[in-house]
Every structure is written in structure tokens, then in C-alpha cells.
Write a structure and sequence with these properties.
It is a single chain. With 298 residues, the protein is of the alpha/beta class. Helices cover 46% and strands 14% of the residues. The protein has 12 helices and 10 strands. It has an 8-stranded parallel beta barrel, surrounded by 6 helices. Strands 2-3 form a two-stranded antiparallel sheet. Helix 8 links the parallel strand 9 and strand 10. Helix 3 packs parallel to helix 4, helix 9 packs antiparallel against helix 10 and helix 11 packs across helix 12. The longest helix is centred in the C-terminal third of the chain and has 17 residues.
């Protein structure tokens, strides 16, 4: 059984990376983080999937984490995305995040090279040994081609005191029960899919790393808080209201739709980096209708 202390619970926003003319838009990032703080989120995740981390070079990746820590100023937690498909690269980025003052690190499963479960164990164990930061694993087999097996998660939780949780984004709510049984009550389980957050919470998860909270931080936070406070009917009402948004933010590859929505709201430019391209016109129209139906835009 894991004996780790649950550290990252509630609502964490997988923040987008604002770009302008090919560079990180620092002013837009500051504004976006201020809105997240006002919305009551518990923390943010910079340089994750939603932050287009595969297109950030090392300097940008570290700079983005440094900026996020500075702009957050201790008001919310910063769980920095520092995973990689190269163990040495993940260690390098994680050490940099620790030096920058991040509160923890999100470690995605290595992608493309598809390691065995033993390879996954040794990869994460090496990262854990190289840092004092608490680590949250990130299992997203649809992108990585490999799932972090429940037994591997439990093995890591027992072997590495600073492996404290997992972001589960495999689309399978049964994994919550499997992970809870294998890793104990103090091990943090976070939903990686907005549409499954309520189901995950009902099965014993501790919160969400949300894409939708880029747009509606207060509402996602209220949904999670309501359920955790025993007000399941209120949580279900919020889920039902925003379910169309949760779904349509994945009309195309994340973060294409959420960046289009943020641009519509005037929060930032919707600039993406290749190979991602803007939302297709039919899907853009559908997203606008959904945003209007949810009362997010007029």
C-alpha cells in the first residue's frame, strides 16, 4: 500500500500556452493565470499536452514554467509538465522545474518508443530519484501508445516516496477503482477527461486536471467542490450544463478547440504551432454554438 500524502486535489487547469508571432505571449499568460486564480482553481499545469509541450524547445519549456511560478506567486500550486520519452530529458526538465520553484511535476508516459512495464518503472524511478519534487504520473495511452499498468503504478508508489499520484486519461472509469485498491487512499487520482470527472469522483478520485477550466475555471471548481462536499445533485447539474462544452472541446485535437474558444473570448490570440492548425470552419461553427448554448459567449 502507498503511504504517500495526497498533495494535489481539487481542480487543476491544464493551461494553454499563449503564442504571439511565434513566441510565448508572456502578458497573455499573466492575464490567463490571474483569471484562473480569480476562478478559484487549486492549481495549474503548464507545459502539458494542452500547453503544446511537444513544440516547446528546452529553453521555452523551462521559461514557461518559470513564468507560471512567478505569475502564480504562491496563490495556487504549479504542477509542471516535465515528462518526456527520453529519461535524461525528463530528468533535466524536472530538475529545472524544481529550481524554478514548481510545487510538483506531471510525468507523462514515454511516447512513441513504447517501453515495457519494466521500462516504465525504471524510467519513472530514475526521475523520482533525481528530484525532491512530488511526481504525478500521467497515463494517456491514446497519445502515448502505452498505458501505465495498475501494478506498475502501485510498484512505483511503494518504491518512490515522491510518486504521489496519477492523472488518468485512458477514458476508463474502472481504472479509478483498480488504482484505489492497489495504491491506497492517500494516493491521488485525478481525472484527465472533463466528461468523466464526475464519474471519477463518484468512484473515489480526488479531482481533475481540466481543459475546460481554461474557459470556465469557477464552474469546474464549483462542480468538483460540490461533489466532494456531498452535494452531488448540484455537481450533476453543473456537469449536465457544461457537458456539451466538455465534449466539443475535443472536436479536434486538443488544444485546437480550446484555443479557438479563448480567442473568441478575447483572452489571447488563438495562435498554434505546427503541426497543429486552426479549427476547421464547420467545427468552429459548432463550437461557437456550444459556447452560446452554455452562456459563455453571446
Amino acid at each position: 500500500m502507498a503511504t504517500n500524502q495526497s498533495l494535489f486535489t481539487g481542480t487543476y487547469t491544464a493551461i494553454v500556452t499563449p503564442f504571439k508571432d511565434g513566441k510565448i505571449d508572456e502578458a497573455a499568460l499573466d492575464r490567463h493565470l490571474r483569471a484562473q486564480i480569480r476562478g478559484g482553481v487549486d492549481g495549474v499545469v503548464p507545459a502539458g499536452t494542452t500547453g503544446e509541450s511537444p513544440t516547446l524547445d528546452f529553453d521555452e519549456h523551462i521559461r514557461l514554467i518559470e513564468l507560471t511560478v512567478r505569475f502564480a506567486a504562491g496563490r495556487i500550486k504549479v504542477l509542471a509538465g516535465t515528462g518526456a520519452n527520453s529519461t535524461s530529458e525528463a530528468i533535466y526538465l524536472t530538475k529545472a522545474a524544481e529550481e524554478a520553484g514548481a510545487d510538483g511535476s506531471l510525468q507523462v508516459a514515454p511516447y512513441y518508443n513504447r517501453p515495457s512495464q519494466e521500462g516504465l518503472f525504471q524510467h519513472f524511478q530514475a526521475i523520482a530519484a533525481a528530484t525532491r519534487l512530488p511526481l504525478v504520473l500521467y497515463s494517456i495511452p491514446g497519445r502515448c501508445g502505452v498505458e501505465i499498468a495498475t501494478d506498475t503504478v502501485a510498484r512505483l508508489a511503494c518504491a518512490c516516496p515522491n510518486v504521489v499520484g496519477i492523472k488518468e486519461a485512458g477514458g476508463n472509469a474502472d481504472r479509478v477503482s483498480q488504482l484505489r485498491a492497489a495504491c491506497g487512499q492517500k494516493f491521488t487520482i485525478l481525472s484527465g477527461d472533463d466528461i468523466l470527472t464526475l464519474a471519477f469522483l463518484a468512484l473515489g478520485a480526488d479531482g481533475v486536471i481540466s481543459v475546460a477550466s481554461n474557459l470556465i475555471p469557477r464552474e469546474v471548481t464549483r462542480m468538483v467542490e460540490a461533489f466532494r462536499a456531498g452535494r452531488s445533485a448540484a455537481a450533476l447539474k453543473l456537469h449536465a450544463r457544461y457537458y456539451p462544452l466538455f465534449k466539443d472541446l475535443f472536436l479536434e485535437t486538443n488544444p485546437v478547440p480550446v484555443k479557438a474558444a479563448l480567442a473568441l473570448l478575447g483572452v489571447m490570440d488563438g495562435e498554434l504551432r505546427l503541426p497543429l492548425v486552426p479549427l476547421s470552419p464547420p467545427n468552429h461553427d459548432k463550437l461557437v454554438k456550444t459556447l452560446q448554448a452554455c452562456g459563455i459567449v453571446q
